[in-house]
Amino acid sequence: MTPDPPTANSLVKIRILGTSGAEVADGDVSVKISWAGMQVAQQTLSLCKFLSCPIKAGPITATYENTMPSFVPRGKYGVDVVARSGSGSDVLCMRASFNV
């Protein structure tokens, strides 16, 4: 994640490395952000905007970018990312945490 730790008004980039077990033509990515254990934001994106489709079986690299709000309460944040194919199969699951 850059910057680490994130700051108010900064563009936060999370780079995800993994391996796909099969080719995936399309799907959705759900990103949920929590603060102090409470969900504070959720975003659903097209998998093909997050990764280049079709996704071939093998190594994958994905980057999620979002701008932090101008006011960011201090504390522990969590990020959960789940990507599913158009048929509902899990493509990617990631959980991360950081402090602000």
From TrEMBL:
SMART domains: ML (SM00737). Residues 2-98 form the MD-2-related lipid-recognition domain. InterPro entries: Ig_E-set, ML_dom, NPC2-like. Pfam families: E1_DerP2_DerF2. The keyword Manganese does not apply. It comes from the Eukaryota. Coiled coil: none annotated. Keywords: Lipid transport, Signal, Transport. Monomer. Belongs to the NPC2 family. Catalyzes the intermembrane transfer of phosphatidylglycerol and phosphatidylinositol. This is MD-2-related lipid-recognition domain-containing protein.
